[in-house]
Design goal:
mainly alpha, globular, binds heme C, 5 helices
């Protein structure tokens, strides 16, 4: 009988003592997952191909035209190469693209000429 009472007391004590820990844990999980979701949403800007086309026409036709992208001996063979080349040519042409605009131009070139899998 004494034994049972002790066990019940212990259980009750544990439950009460654990409650705040559980609540804090649950609150942290909620907080962390909402932070993770909001940063995922802000990182999710999809490239704008129409804007990429306009930026390309304005800044990128001074030294070469579109034939450069489909010539048989073209120098770009992967999506990463393409991104690096657009960055390089952005500097060469002083276009001054933001990283979002670089993505727009890369997407425009990929959709229309290179068609690499990402
Ligand atoms: C200052 C001159 C110049 C300007 C302006 C320029 N490029 Fe280039 N670009 C080059 C040259 C030169 C090559 C070829 C390099 C080679 O054949 O080795 C090239 C090649 C490329 C290629 C690779 C073609 C292939 O072989 O697959 C891409 C993609 C490219 N340019 C994108 C751009 C973009 C996007 C812009 C606008 C931001 C731009 N270029 C503006 C000089 C320029």
């Amino acid at each position: 009988m004494t034994h049972i009472l002790l066990t019940m007391k212990d259980t009750a004590k544990n439950t009460v003592a654990n409650w705040p820990v559980k609540a804090i844990f649950a609150a942290s999980v909620l907080l962390l997952s909402s932070i993770a979701m909001s940063s995922a949403v802000s990182a999710e800007r999809s490239p704008d191909v129409t804007l990429g086309k306009a930026l390309h026409e304005k800044n990128c036709m001074k030294c070469h035209d579109n034939r450069q992208y489909t010539r048989p001996n073209r120098i770009i063979h992967t999506f990463e190469d393409l991104h690096a080349r657009v960055e390089f040519c952005d500097t060469a042409s002083n276009a001054g693209f933001s990283s979002d605009n670089l993505d727009d131009v890369v997407e425009y070139l990929n959709v229309n000429f290179y068609k690499f899998m990402k």
